[in-house]
Design goal:
The complex is a heterodimer of chains A (221) and B (298).
Chain A lengths: L2 H10 L6 H4 L2 H11 L14 E4 L6 H9 L40 H14 L6 E6 L6 H12 L5 E7 L10 H8 L3 E6 L3 H9 L7 E6 L5
Parallel strand pairs in A: 1-2, 2-3, 3-5, 4-5
Chain B lengths: L2 H15 L3 E5 L4 H10 L4 E3 L4 H13 L3 E7 H7 L1 H10 L4 E6 L17 H5 L6 E3 L4 H13 L3 E6 L16 E4 L5 E5 L3 H7 L6 E5 L1 E3 L3 H7 L4 E9 L4 H7 L6 E7 L10 H7 L4 H12 L5
The chains are: A alpha/beta (221), B alpha/beta (298).
Chain lengths: 221, 298
């Protein structure tokens, strides 16, 4: 068991986690360990890279990675979800160091990320904004407003990573990548468990257009 | 100059003069923003007909450290995208200035889809939001400059109905327009002229509020002569009644709350016809006051 999984077990009480609890784990680890320029020391730096966890439910992997990166102490895990704990079942940026947005209601993170990418560009900052959404979260129409606008405004600081565990009720194989590509995004689909492949895909940048990485993981059920 | 044109001019000037200010809109009012958008394409952004995105793009900009102005018709800005306002600004705890035009009946000929008498009642569910009802174009200019230059979350309601006199922007404090020995009448935003006309022959106090949240409870208590309080609001009747009740919870009082009724008003025509139909013109306000203040009703 990795250090991160050990930290997760402090929250879940399990040595083995359900697929749902860990669907985001590898992507978030690769982002913080290999891709994003952000740390507890640079958490207040306007030029830091941003990670927006839009799919706010099942945040244990996110919390575990943040704690492992040193954003907050792992002692916080003992009573997570309790009245006085900053760690809830949906993360709150005003309670947890390192958390960039409060999320839980689906379909907000990507539109917020579009605004942040625009704001950073207007301020001449070269930071990246990486936003994680779930495949079923893309049911929310608000995402599609953002998927259309981001390439139209050439937001190349923006990266979307879709965790695809096939949980949308009306899923169509291959549709996510095709939909983003149709709107002008650079789009790839990769193995959401392979760290080297994820690193390559998440590090990739396209001049003048945003990119999406569809990270496929095993089904929820 | 009308209030909406003034808003556009002031917003453009704020974008020109402050690099931290952004203007986000959704097609509506684009005819006013061409020059400033060409000069500052990174800070003046048209998101197309996408109001959910409008609000969250503004909130996302605020998260990056900018001060956003967000604008479209109030109906789409507040009602269509309300969860974006609640979460994008409120829950994230970032600030910005929402500017809704049209109000309760400016776009009367377009029908219910373009009318938003419920905007203030809905926004009033959000903790900490400041709500401004400038009474004419000059008050729009002052409110926008102060709120964009300040901090926190604000709603500025830009409408066609206008007062002749201009009062300073003074959030949290009502203006005492007239002192009398009888009832206290609170005129909110552009209804002041009609309130003054309706009360011309009466010994009443008239307060004027071009900011209604925060509500000036101390100001109301300070001028109260008799237990009679009248609220005249250009949006849903009774929207501020809760604040009157809280301000006067230890003082015997009775309240007449005038405004737009909740029943859907299925008529087109001109704004003036809607104002009259809602009893918010001088004659209508005078009739309501007569009933409320006549000895038989007491």
């Amino acid at each position: 068991m990795s250090r991160t999984e050990h930290l997760m077990s402090l929250m879940t009480g399990d040595e083995k986690h359900s697929a749902a609890a860990t669907s985001t784990l590898d992507v978030i680890r690769v982002l913080y360990e290999r891709v994003l320029k952000v740390s507890p020391e640079s958490a207040g730096d306007p030029a830091r890279d941003r990670f927006y966890l839009s799919k706010g439910h099942g945040p244990m992997a996110y919390y575990a990675v943040l704690a492992e990166q040193g954003f907050f102490p792992e002692e916080w895990f003992a009573d997570w979800g309790s009245y006085d704990s900053p760690l809830g079942y949906h993360p709150d940026r005003n309670l947890v160091p390192g958390v960039e947005i409060g999320s839980g209601s689906l379909g907000h993170g990507l539109p917020l990320a579009v605004g942040t990418a625009l704001g950073l560009r207007a301020q001449g900052l070269a930071s990246r904004v990486v936003v994680l959404v779930g495949d079923a979260e893309l049911d929310e129409g608000s995402n599609h407003e953002a998927i259309e606008l981001a390439p139209a405004l050439s937001l190349d600081a923006l990266t979307v990573v879709v965790i695809d565990n096939g949980s949308s009720s009306y899923t169509v194989p291959g549709r996510i990548e095709r939909r983003f590509a149709t709107e002008g995004w650079h789009a790839v689909t990769v193995d959401g468990r392979d760290h080297d492949v994820l690193e390559k895909a998440l590090t990739h940048r396209e001049f003048g257009r945003p990119n999406v990485v569809v990270a496929t993981v095993e089904g929820k059920y | 100059m009308d209030a909406r044109t003034q808003f556009a001019l002031t917003a453009a000037d704020l974008v020109e003069s402050d690099e931290s200010v952004a203007l986000v809109y959704a097609e509506i009012s684009g005819q006013f923003f061409g020059d400033v958008e060409r000069r500052h394409p990174d800070r003046v952004v048209n998101v197309g007909i996408r109001e959910q995105l409008l609000v969250n793009v503004g909130a996302g900009m605020a998260l990056s450290g900018m001060r956003p102005i967000l604008h479209t018709f109030g109906s789409f800005l507040v009602e269509r995208a309300f969860e974006q306002v609640k979460l994008g600004f409120g829950h994230q705890d970032v600030g910005g200035v929402l500017v809704g035009s049209g109000g309760s009946f400016d776009i009367s000929s377009a029908g219910r889809t373009h009318q938003v008498p419920g905007d203030v009642a809905l926004l009033d569910t959000l903790p900490g939001i400041s709500i401004h009802a400038p009474g004419n174009a000059l008050e729009v200019d002052a409110a926008l400059r102060a709120t964009v230059g300040g901090s926190g979350l604000h709603y500025v309601r830009v409408v066609g109905q206008a007062n002749r006199e201009t009062h300073p922007f003074r959030p949290g404090r009502f203006h005492v327009v007239r002192r009398g020995g009888g009832a206290t009448v609170i005129a909110v935003g552009p209804v002041l002229d009609d309130v003054l006309a309706a009360t011309a022959g009466r010994d009443v106090t008239v307060l004027y509020a071009n900011t209604i949240r925060p509500f000036d409870a101390a100001g109301l208590r300070a001028v109260l002569s008799t237990p009679d309080v009248v609220l005249v609001e250009p949006w849903l009747a009774g929207t501020s009644a809760r604040h009157v009740a809280e301000a006067l919870q230890d003082r015997p009082h009775r309240l007449l709350a005038l405004g737009v009724p909740r029943v859907e008003h299925r008529h087109y025509g001109q704004p003036e016809e809607h104002i009259a139909a809602h009893g918010l013109d001088a004659a209508g306000i005078a009739r309501s006051l007569e009933t409320f203040l006549s000895p038989a009703a007491a």
